[in-house]
Every structure is written in structure tokens, then in C-alpha cells.
Amino acid sequence: MTRVHSFADESGNFDFTTGRSASRYFILTTITVEDGSPLSLRLHELRLQLAWEGFDHPGPFHATEDKQSVRDRVFEALSEHDFRIDATILEKSKAHPGTRRSEEQFYQFAWFYHLKYLAPRIATPSDDLLVVASSIGTKKKRQAFSTAVNDVVGQFSPTATYRTAFWLNACDPCLQVADYCCWAIQRKWERSDARSYELIRGKIESEFDLFKSGSQRYY
């Protein structure tokens, strides 16, 4: 029996318009590691080393906010370890209005298709599965998002035992890894910037464009 841990982050927003602040895509990304993976420890060691070298980095690793010199070190650290990356890409203008009546509904929609594919590929009936999502939104929305993730994991987990959690990004280094991987994939899709994507390409097991075959746009 193996305890499988899957950590998730997302990029994009819930603005379904053509406004300048609206993202084109909503991207859900997970990294999957087995219990006992040294990945968390490696990021902690990197933080200590950066402090020793005089880097002013008091908060968690966050790809959007980190300096490029820090990003380079994080991606270098990630290259040393085995883990699995999966991403589901949703081009928001192709999402039927019925799937996005609320932020919570669209969030659950993304998780539904992500875990429908992922869960049977990362765990077996004899395993345990822990899915940890990065906490977003207000307290009320966080509860709704957490419930959505738990419902979907319950539908698709092949394991007899599973748990879900909804943590702040700062709480766990593996959530910060998920943030970095999601950021790299987002840069490729939103900006055609594949520099960081190429650094993790070998760890990406799936990158599913959910609406690839769709041609209708709703805004």
C-alpha cells in the first residue's frame, strides 16, 4: 500500500469577459508524489541556502512574485527530483454558460475533468490518496471550493481511503512546487513563453486542452 499525495494550484481568474484583466485560460495543475518524497525538504534546504547567500526572500516561494534569480534556483532544485505533473487547460471563452453560473461551479467543473483522468492513473484500490488544493477566495468561497474538491475526489478516487485538504500556499513546499509548475504552464499558454515550461517538460505526464475540439465561443 502506498500513500499518494497530489498537490494542486490553478492559474487564471473567473472573469468571463474580454477585458484586459481577464485571463484567456483557467489552468488546473497538480503535482503528485509518494509519501516520503524528499521534495519538501529540498525546498526547505534551498530557502536556507538562499538566506546564507544573502537573498531577501522572507515569504513562501511564489513564481509570479519571485525574482528571476530565485526562480532559476527553484527550477534547478525541482530538476533533481522525480514527481508527476498534470494540467487541465480550459479556454474560458469556449466554456458553455451552463458550466460557469458561479465561480464555484466552474471550479468544480475543472476539477471534475482533471481528476476523472488523473485519479485512476496515480492510485490503485490498495493505496491511500491525499489531495491538497491551494486555498483561494473569501472564507465562504473557500468552504465551497473545498466541498467541490472533496465531492469530485469522492467520485473518482479508486482508493478505499482518501482525504482532501485546502491549505494556504505558504503551508507546504509542495504547494509551492505546484505553483511554480502551474506558472510555467500558464506562461506557455497565455504568453507563448516556454522558457520555464521547457525546464519541467520532462515531468509533465498530461496537458489536456479540454475544449480543443470546440469551435464555438460564448463571448
How does this structure look, described?
- This protein is α/β, with parallel strands linked by helices.
- Helices cover 40% and strands 21% of the residues.
- It has a single domain, classed as Ribonuclease H-like superfamily/Ribonuclease H (Nucleotidyltransferase, domain 5), CATH 3.30.420.
- It has six helices and six strands; from the N terminus they run E-E-H-H-E-H-E-H-E-H-H-E.
- A six-stranded mixed sheet has the order 5-4-1-2-3-6, sandwiched between helices.
- The longest helix is centred in the middle third of the chain and has 20 residues, at 103-122.
List the helices and strands and how they pair.
Elements: E1 3-11, E2 25-34, H1 39-52, H2 68-78, E3 84-91, H3 103-122, E4 128-134, H4 139-156, E5 161-167, H5 173-191, H6 195-200, E6 204-209
Parallel strand pairs: 1-4, 3-6, 4-5
Antiparallel strand pairs: 1-2, 2-3
Helix pairs in contact: 1-2, 3-4
Count of runs of 4 or more consecutive helical residues = 6
CATH topology: Nucleotidyltransferase, domain 5
User: How many angstroms separate the termini?
Assistant: 48 Å
Q: How would you classify the helix and strand content by structural class?
A: alpha/beta
CATH superfamily: Ribonuclease H-like superfamily/Ribonuclease H
